[in-house]
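As a warm-up, study this chain.
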Amino acid sequence: MKNTHQNYIYMCHRLKKFYRRHEHIIDQTKGLSAYFVNLSAMVDQLQIEFEKSISNYNGFSIERARKRDELQNQTVKMSASIAYLRQTLKYKPIEQLSSFVDKDIIELSTLNEEELLDYCSSLYDLFLVCEPRLKIQGLKQKEVDLFVNALTLCALDYPMNKYSIEMRKQASLMSLKAHADLTEFIQNKLDVAMEAFGIDHPDLLLEYQKLRIIEPFNIYSKADIEGELSDGQVHVLKKIRYDRDREFRVSVEGGNAIWGLSSNINKIEHCRPVNPREKINILSRWIGNDGDYLMIQNINQSQKIQYKIWITES
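Now compare it with the structure written out below.
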């Protein structure tokens, strides 16, 4: 849904620019300019709600990211033991195992903090039910302790982030409504009005229709910056004057990382986590309110990560 909102917002911004380019002609048609004014207001509302739904993702840190990474790694090991137990039980199966869902590391990376803690907590409850058989199967107490410790450390952080999570949820719901209202307005009013306008101005109608196409980002286009990480250290990729409307897209393979903007070359002050499955465009203002250094840091020092970054100027 994030990509849907973003691609839609960018399409609407193209329509706003279209109106500014041809304002002197469009304003001659009764009522049409009012539709573009309404479009601008509705797009702004969608963008406000969308920004609120993701902007509170800030406040991230390498320490917090590594706590989550450790929890995900221990969770994969625990869930693998439980999944293997389910496969080997031919007689007297454990009822609670029937609804168990084994998630891999990529699937865990896509969960928000609340969802991850819920999954891990239910996994621990399942472990308690299956503990005798898991111990017979070979699960060591040391492995259980590592999982519990990782879960505890992340759970201790959760109360501080709970308010932000609830704010993001509410903003996500509002952005869904704003997206639906905007779609209905464009399809049922603006498009219809432009069709009538196009009778006398076919070239402008054709230009409008081309701009109405929602174009996904081409992940196969050449990246502006790319490289590898394997040391867990902060890397300054580029010094670039802060522009709140500059757009970034980051892709990683091989593991998770944090990246973002900073005025301090030793620490990423406005951080974003990124995992191999995430494909999202980010404006500078959604990362933070300042920072002339574009930086990246891999979370797990034992992983070699390949990264690509695309930069679109405002």
